[in-house]
Specification:
Layout: E1 7-11, E2 18-20, H1 24-37, H2 53-63, H3 68-89, E3 95-97, H4 101-109, E4 114-119, H5 124-132, E5 143-144, H6 155-167, E6 173-178, H7 181-190, E7 193-197, H8 204-207, E8 214-216, H9 222-230
Parallel strand pairs: 1-4, 1-6, 4-5, 6-7, 7-8
Antiparallel strand pairs: 2-3
């Protein structure tokens, strides 16, 4: 039974739970532009942090100079191509699990007053692939994913709506755990608490002006993170 002190903890993935070991995302989206539109582009200076895959794809296509209507004709095929491309190359060499996040997720999953879910820019299948290789995917009851909007702020209300449809209760305690400014902005957008980790591409100095409730160097201090979640 869901009670008023029930906590919904929404985890980001990239830079929060896992991290790329190389420039694979840049190469994959450069290949996307060439594969679908015969356009060669460089994404060396492109910053993925905090964006939804739907937004990334749109920006990559814009950078390639492809008209919106041409992109829309191929959008469904592109959304299938991205996770298929990732699945062919996913490995422990491509991704690493960040320190002790598996322990944190496992400890939180034991609490009857807590629901774990994903709020991520990833496409659903990409999220599953990344977390399943570390045996983490099954801990999350649902997700608000990057396929659902170009605007990451939309994912917060989507997550609440999905939670309500499953549990029938609007949670009074919502916590977003992430690594990017966009994660803080989503939290502010829905009145949630922002617990930030510096394991992604965003610095403490970049985060501070947005006033997250907590900033940690990483998520390895399980007791401290749990205290921040329920404080």
């Amino acid at each position: 039974m869901i009670t008023k002190d029930h906590t919904l903890v929404l985890f980001d993935i990239d830079g929060t739970l896992t991290i790329y070991n190389d420039d694979f995302p840049h190469r994959m989206f450069e290949e996307l532009a060439e594969h679908f539109f015969a356009k060669k582009i460089s994404l060396e200076d492109y910053r993925f942090s905090g964006k939804t895959d739907k937004n990334i794809i749109a920006e990559v296509i814009e950078r390639a100079g492809v008209p919106e209507e041409t992109f829309l004709e191929q959008e469904a095929a592109i959304v299938e191509w991205v996770p298929a491309r990732l699945e062919r190359h996913i490995s422990h060499q491509t991704f690493s699990l960040l320190p002790k996040v598996n322990h944190l997720v496992e400890e939180l999953s034991k609490r009857d007053n807590t629901t774990l879910a994903l709020l991520t820019g990833n496409l659903p299948r990409c999220a599953e692939l990344k977390l399943a290789q570390f045996a983490l995917y099954h801990y999350f009851e649902f997700g608000a994913y990057g396929i659902e909007s170009r605007d990451r702020n939309d994912l917060g209300p989507i997550a609440i709506e999905k939670f309500n449809s499953m549990k029938g209760f609007h949670p009074s305690n919502i916590v977003i755990i992430g690594d990017a400014i966009a994660d803080v902005l989503v939290a502010k957008h829905i009145g949630a608490k922002a617990v930030m980790t510096l394991t992604g591409r965003t610095t403490r100095e970049e985060l501070l002006p947005h006033e997250p409730e907590y900033i940690f160097d990483d998520l390895s201090e399980t007791d401290s993170i749990i205290a921040a979640i329920y404080n």
